[in-house]
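[User]
Um, tokens okay?
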Amino acid sequence: MTAPDESRAPETDPFRGNLLLEALNASDRALLAPHLERGKRARGMALFRAGEDVSHVTFPLHQTTVTLVSRMRDGRMVETATVGHEGAIGGVVSHGYLPAFSEAVVQVPGEVLRIDAVQLTRARAASSSLGDLFVRYADCLLAQVLQSVACNAVHPIEERCLRWLLTFQDRLGSPVLPVTQEMLAEMLGVRRTYLTGVIGSLQRRGLISVRRGQITILDRAKAEHAACECYGKVRDHFRSVLGAVYAESGAIVAVDPTQRHE
């Protein structure tokens, strides 16, 4: 079972901190505002697990970050998508209350907004602009999942590792990532002992530094050049379909489908 919601009094702007919600016009905000619930989510918390009905759509706020993972019979898991303040997770396309195929795990704790999946379905049906925004986001999320599958199949572990770290940085907006080697090994679907060698190689190349409980990207430009093509392809898709705006640091700072960047 998923953990109960920990409600807090809403901020003055209930949409602040999630770029997808901030992109809504006033009438679309009015459709969602009465149904939004605010809460906190701890690291390691499962928003839903495979086979559970997805009752809510969750919007990470600020630096809160969630990964979609597929878990194997032997307990190993691998990341298929990473969602932060640029998006939403759970029942984004479906009408909700359908069994989840994968597991959604909180990697960076913090605040979230959530809405009952049925209420979001009704709002999408009432507004073409709201429906269009979520269709565009769902397309980008699917692109991330599909590219992750291709990446895991054909690219070297060093390139995959950099792709994942850069994607994480885009959601956090900081080169200092609260990532342990154990967590990174889980996300990449490899053993910790194997990842140790990979991390050492990236350190010797001057791309990252490692301290207890964190990994820092030292040179983003070099890291992007050394990463596989998958990182750039997904990023470009977010730009062209969702109108994602990226800062020089790599952080996603805005979403505006009316101003798509080719």
Notes: The domain at 151-256 is CATH 1.10.10.10 (Arc Repressor Mutant, subunit A). DSSP finds nine helices and twelve strands in the chain. The chain has two domains: 19-137, 151-256.
